[in-house]
Amino acid sequence: MKAMIFSAGLGTRFKPWTDKHPKALAPVNGKPLLQRNIEYLQQYGIDEVIVNVHHFADQIIDAVEKNKGWGSKVIISDERDIVLETGGGLLKAKNLFTPGERFITCNADILTDLNIHDLIRYHEAQQALISFGVTDRKSSRCLLFDEHDRLCGWKNNSTGEVKLPVPHTPLAEKAYSCVALFEPSVFSLIPFHGKFSLIDVYLALAPSQRIMGYDHSGDRLVDVGKPESISVAESLFP
Q1: Of 46, 82, 109, 163, whose CB count within 10 A is highest?
Q2: At what angle do helices 198-205 and 85-92 cross, to 10 degrees?
Q3: Same structural domain for residues 47 and 94?
Q4: What is the rounded CA–CA span in Å between residue 159 and residue 26?
Q5: Which pLDDT score is estimated for 41?
Q6: Which residues of the chain have pLDDT under 70?
């Protein structure tokens, strides 16, 4: 199984580091975020990794080459011309995946110890097209699920905006962990082109496909979105 680590973002919330570096190379206890995610995937036998690059792309490519992929085979998906967000980045990398094989995606700036083997077992039991980690934590935006953890919608808790492609009551609010497992058939179902997010994909496919949230509340997880979150990450991930 291959994985893709999204590493192309501008990291605007992570200034001043991202004025001169990509966020994916920000160190946590001496190890770049990208390295930590590559080693996380290695724990589950995933040692072929696609990494998309845009912001200070050469720095990421140089680090991968210098460190020999930190023990994994790293394939670069070059987005230097235009950053495509997570959904667009995934679609651009389509031909870098193994045809007919399911795959994992994660974000370079999220650290977690979600058990991928458990996620796979859940995904298979649910016969899902996409299954992703979620937790019961506070977040500015959340995903909305029915009582069986099937995705119904999305909510912006800051503005009150709600998208509900699958009307349902009651709804449970859970926060996205950014570790997702996909069946390969997803590529033929994505209804977008260019720049778009994976959340857009999930919501577009929710009415017709089984898009499932795997609740792993209690696991370690930190969004290294701002410089002050580095200290939190370092306390959780020595």
Answers
A1: 109
A2: 90
A3: yes
A4: 30
A5: 98
A6: none
Q: Which residue has the tokens 């857009």?
A: 200
**Does residue 230 form part of some domain?**
no
Instruction: Identify the CA nearest to 96 among candidates 108, 119, 120, 78.
Output: 78
For residue 200, the 8-state DSSP code is H
Neighbours of 206 (CB within 10 A): 23
Q: Using alpha carbons, select from 143, 140, 136, 141 the residue that is nearest to residue 168.
A: 143
Measured CA to CA, the distance from residue 87 to residue 93 in angstroms comes to 10
- Say which CATH number the domain at 47 has: 3.90.550.10
| Sequence letter at residue 46 | I
What is the CB-side half-sphere exposure of residue 13 using CA atoms within 13 A?
9
Tally of structural domains, the chain: 2
Q: How far apart are CA 87 and CA 187, in angstroms?
A: 10
Residue 125 in any domain: the answer is yes
Tokens matching residue 155: 């909510």
Residues sharing a CB contact under 8 Å with residue 58, sequence separation 6 or more, in sequence order: none
Residues spanned by the domain of 9:
1-111
- CB proximity list for 148: less than 8 A, separation 6 or greater: none
Where does residue 29 rank: exposed (0-12), middle (13-18), buried (19+ CB within 10 A)?
Answer: exposed
**Is residue 143 located within the same domain as residue 65?**
no
**What's the CA gap between 187 and 95, in Å, rounded?**
10
d(CA 3, CA 51) in angstroms, rounded, equals 9
Q: Which residues face 112 on adjacent strands?
A: 221
